[in-house]
Amino acid sequence: MKTSLSPEKAFQKIKHYCAYQERNHYEVREKLYGMGLFKKEVETLITRLIEEDYLNEARYAIQFAGGHFRLKKWGKIKIRFELQQKGVSDYNIKAALKEINEADYLQVLSKLALEKWASLKAESPAGRHARTTAFLLRKGYENNLIQEVIAAIY
């Protein structure tokens, strides 16, 4: 049987958890429940974390969007979906997506399209077009931007 921590001990642990890396409310809530705390205690601790600025959904969303764009080359559609899955508010999602530089976004999209297009040498032009489009859609880029970029290559 799992023993539960006192709210004060749990607060010390969760402070460290939030200080180590940006977290969203859902992750923190689940972690606190995993420590054996009850709903009222969990909500009290989350309020304290927000007040002491260990937990900030806007900061989390900006960090998540920027990181996944830079490191994983995700498009805005996929980033939006993932943030929605994590329970982040629409307001914070929109603010985070605005932080992505539009010129960088188009540059990354073009680079991904060129790399994918070049890797499909054996395909017919129509096949290259279809597979490159599908790849970029899976990465979460907008269809109209994909078509513009592929038209420039094609």
From TrEMBL:
- Which branch of life, at top level? Bacteria
Question: What subcellular locations does the record give?
Answer: Cytoplasm
Q: Name one GO biological process term.
A: regulation of DNA repair
Keyword Nucleotide-binding, does the record have it?
no
InterPro entries (UniProt xref): RecX_HTH_2nd, RecX_HTH_3rd, Regulatory_RecX, WH-like_DNA-bd_sf
Instruction: Supply the Pfam families for this chain.
Output: RecX_HTH2 (PF02631), RecX_HTH3 (PF21981)
- The residue ranges of the RecX third three-helical domain are 104-150
- Keyword set includes Cytoplasm: yes
Its primary localisation, in coarse terms, equals cytoplasm
Question: Which protein is depicted?
Answer: Regulatory protein RecX
Q: Residue limits of the RecX second three-helical domain?
A: 56-97
Which family would the database say this protein is a member of?
A: Belongs to the RecX family.
Q: Which UniProt keywords apply?
A: Cytoplasm
* Gene Ontology, cellular component aspect: cytoplasm
Function recorded in the entry: Modulates RecA activity.
